[in-house]
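Open question from group meeting: does this chain pack into something compact, or does most of it stay loose? Before anyone orders reagents, we agreed to write out a predicted structure and look at it together. Recording both the input and the output here so the notebook holds the full record.
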Amino acid sequence: MLELQVRWADARGIARLDRAMRAIGEQKFRVIGNRVVNRTSDMARTHVRKALTKQTGLKRVVIVKAVRVTPSSPATLT
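Structure tokens returned:
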């Protein structure tokens, strides 16, 4: 089963999120979670490439070849 930890200042927000997640079902939640993980990793990869290019002075093409991301899939999402 997929576990998600969220911190909320107002407990009503957590209850609302819980109801929404249960309403969509585990399979759709896995698909949505997979999209979120992949989008977040793409954004992180972009920031890492920019930062490493500035910090190391290497050309961007070298950094792009070195920084690899393995995309998530609903089956491998844990």
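Observations to bring back to the group:
Residues 20 and 57 are 46 Å apart (CA to CA).
The chain is about 65% helix and 0% strand.
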